[in-house]
Amino acid sequence: MSMLELHEVSKTYGDGAAEVRALDGVSLSVGEGSMVAVMGPSGSGKSTLLTIAGTLEQPTSGQVTVGGQELRGMSRNDKARLRRRTIGYVFQDFNLLPGLTAAENVALPLELDGLRAGRARAAGLRALEQMGLANRASAYPDQLSGGERQRVAIARAIVGERRLLLADEPSGALDSANAEAVLHLMRDACKDGGMAAVVVTHDAQLATWADRTVFLRDGHMTDQRVAESGTGVRPRYGPGSDASSASGEAPAGGEAAVLSTAPSGSDAGENR
């Protein structure tokens, strides 16, 4: 089943001479159990894609579906409920609340959704155990290393019955060893838990953990590379592709996502 569907999605900011086209006719499908990496230069539309996929912004045109629910026409309350129950976010700067312990940070989204505190804490502890942090549940964020804080953030993103994981540069503040460990944990959450994930990254080596890597430039999808079992990453080049953007061995993966590319055309804008 496809957890995320974007069909001919465009996003424009401003009018007239000040118009900025952040996304232009982007189509993307991400299935359960798969992880898709999104790469591209600054201003290519990567973060705009994530905010639209996460219901935080409306596209100017096109269709977005999350877990079989089309977002167009959905009320603000329904979108907020979808975010709480279905979508998990991982940020570069962790976004943990400093006055809460690791367990309390992870359990908080469930409590906000009405789950009793005891059940929310039990679910939070299970998520921390998945991340190898059971012994750090009572620690506050400033008592944790950078790698530990990001693992707490991942636990918070996958706790409960969330099905879609959206990560914006999740390894950007980490050293190479911790960055690879974080991507490994996110991939395990997809493969073992059946989640779908979209991960924005500038690191081509880390992107090889994904089942598929797609490339954005000026708001257009320009290239895609699919991980195949035992063969590494196979390039599939499109117009304007960044043939030198990725390298390294990829872990085994299947046909995790289906990508359509729209013809490039208009002036594209900066990422927002």
Strand content: 25-35%
Low-confidence stretches: 230-271
CATH class: Alpha Beta
So, the CATH homologous superfamily?
P-loop containing nucleotide triphosphate hydrolases
The CATH topology label is: Rossmann fold
| Gross CATH architecture | 3-Layer(aba) Sandwich
- Indicate the percent of residues in helices: 25-40%
Tally of discrete structural domains: 1
User: Radius of gyration, Cα only, in angstroms?
Assistant: 18 Å
Task: Assign an overall shape.
Answer: globular
Structural class from helices and strands?
alpha/beta
**Number of DSSP E strands:** 12
Main sheet record: 7 strands, mixed
**DSSP summary: helix tally:** 7
Q: Largest beta sheet: what is the strand line-up?
A: 6-7-8-3-9-10-11
Walk me through what this model shows.
By secondary structure, the protein is of the alpha/beta class. The protein has one domain: Rossmann fold (3-Layer(aba) Sandwich), CATH 3.40.50.300. Helix content is 29%, strand content 28%. It is built from 7 helices and 12 strands. The chain has helices spanning 46-53, 76-86, 102-112, 117-130, 146-158, 176-193, 204-207; strands at 2-13, 20-31, 35-39, 61-66, 69-70, 87-91, 164-168, 196-200, 212-217, 220-228, 232-237, 257-260. Strands 6-7-8-3-9-10-11 form a 7-stranded mixed β-sheet. It has a 5-stranded antiparallel β-sheet with strand order 5-4-1-2-12. Helix 3 packs across helix 4 (117-130), helix 3 (102-112) runs parallel beside helix 5 (146-158) and helix 5 runs parallel beside helix 6. The longest helix is centred in the last third of the chain and has 18 residues, at 176-193. The radius of gyration is 18 Å and the shape is globular. The two termini are 30 Å apart.
